[in-house]
Amino acid sequence: QVQLVESGGGLVQPGGSLRLSCTASGSSFSNYAVGWYSQAPGKQRELVATITIGGSTNYADSVKGRFTIARNNAKNMVYLQMNSLKPEDPAVYYCNARLEIPGRHPASLADYSYWGQGTQVTVSS
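The structure assignment produced for this chain is given below.
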């Protein structure tokens, strides 16, 4: 089992920066792909950025060039560096860890996907 806790959210002015952290317990991040997701009020949770076990990253078009995802397996932590924040950036950010097993399709591991409680980001003048 993996328990995830997000932190680092808060109030920031437009154009400012925040660094979100996702800390895992119960199991090592080393066997999991990790993603950051965002959710705006009344909307579906959507992908922001992902990082694989091998360190490959992907970003939503809306955050490319502004956000950076990184991981530190020794600390069981994943970070989302958020620069040039905009008021339209979704407010709540969630960390997700998905188990990866070589030769297994991700759909077959759906029961091994875990979410944190979310951290609030508010961008306002």
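Interim note for the steering committee: The first strand starts at residue 3 and ends at 7. The two ends are 40 Å apart (CA to CA).
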